[in-house]
Amino acid sequence: MPERGFIEVDRVEKVFDVRRRTGFLRREVRRVRAVDSISFTVARGEMVGYIGPNGAGKSTTVKMLTGILTPSGGRLRVAGIDPSRERTRLAHRIGVVFGQRTTLWWDLPLIDSYRLMHRMYRIPDARYRENLDRLVELLDLGALLDVPVRQLSLGQRMRGDIVAALLHDPEVLYLDEPTIGLDTVSKARVREFLRELNTERGTTVLLTTHDLQDIEQLCSRVMVIDHGRMVYDGALTGLHEVGGAERTLVVDLERELPPIDAGPAARVVKVDGPRQWLAFPASESAAPLVARIAAAYPLLDLSVREPDIEAVIARVLSVTGGAPEPPAERETVVPGAPSS
Questions:
Q1: What are the start and end residues of every segment in region (Disordered) (predicted)?
Q2: Could you tell me which of 65, 147, 63, 66 has the C-alpha nearest to residue 113?
Q3: Cβ atoms 83, 67 nearer than 8 A
Q4: Residue 84 half-sphere exposure, CB side, CA atoms within 13 Å?
Q5: Which of 65, 57, 108 is nearest to 228 (CA)?
Q6: At the topology level of CATH, where does 7-93+170-241+323-330 sit?
Q7: Angle subtended at Cα 77 by Cα 233 and Cα 221, rounded to the nearest 5 degrees
Q8: Where are the domains of the chain?
Q9: Strands 94-98 and 172-176: what pairing?
């Protein structure tokens, strides 16, 4: 059995004070609860998806788990370490990739960033060379090591950031939008690499993303957060069932025909000449549906389109009622007057 509680989050909350002017010499302080009493555990070696609408609190959670932010309340432990109290000690056991921000030095060649990581983390020379060679080969970065980071494409930089996060063999890897802006080939390469990393090295991975294919191809468990509160924690198939999510099978026929009769497994939602779109439950395999159509209709091509992750989340929230937005707490402050 895998170890439970490698990552432990117990009734954690994070409150920010947002100030704005409301008049001459007056300003209002608005308390915003970005994370509102969430709890979960992640076992050693798990790969878990952590999703939600924009502003739901995903990145704030990751920042607390890395020690960048201190929780306003509750208890956090990563590998038995309190991130906010022992951030330096924890840094040697975790790796972090923020899709919107790079950890690489902008004007330096890529290899120089890795040499700096080598010194910062005090990685033994042999281990550094072994990890660098393996990671560079797996992520196809050999020809880019002498290129300044500012000259790399977004996809190249993202792969470079992943290497930087893994040079010191972290036990936990936090990925915040790791495939954002990547082309299809780069996404496939990164996903395959992460799958191998988790399988072969047992690295624990917490993944936030807006790409549902990232979750489907990598994670068996998914957590949904909304307004800072957990609204779902379970299998991906269960998420689809709760939200009633649907995938779309796009069928190109040899000629224009009446709507396809796919039986109870699917329904035709659109017909445009010889092309037809059929919706079927996202929790079901497309194989039986494809086989049925291929046996009865003259086909030219088939493709499956995944549901948009925002649509899946919206469906789940509509079914579960979601998490109500916590009421804002306001306080008017007058300069020179005491405030609470």
A1: 321-340
A2: 147
A3: yes
A4: 14
A5: 57
A6: Rossmann fold (3.40.50)
A7: 20
A8: 7-93+170-241+323-330, 246-306
A9: parallel
Q: Tell me, what DSSP letter sits at residue 264? A: G
For 245-263, how does the pLDDT look when each residue is reduced to its tens digit (9 = 90+)? 788 999 999 999 999 998 8
pTM: 0.78
Q: What is the DSSP string of 106-126?
A: TTSBHHHHHHHHHHHTT--HH
Which neighbouring-strand residues pair with 118?
none
Measured distance CA(288)–CA(204) in Å, rounded: 34
Spatial distance between the Cα atoms of 54 and 269, rounded to a whole number of angstroms = 29
Identify whether the C-beta of residue 110 lies closer than 8 Å to the C-beta of residue 146: yes
Give the residues across from 224 on adjacent strands: 51, 232
Tokens in use for 206? 């917490």
| Alpha-carbon distance values, 229 to 33, 48, 328 (Å) | 10, 17, 15
Specify the pLDDT at position 236.
Answer: 79
**Strands ordered across the beta sheet of 7-23:** 73-78, 7-23, 26-42, 329-333
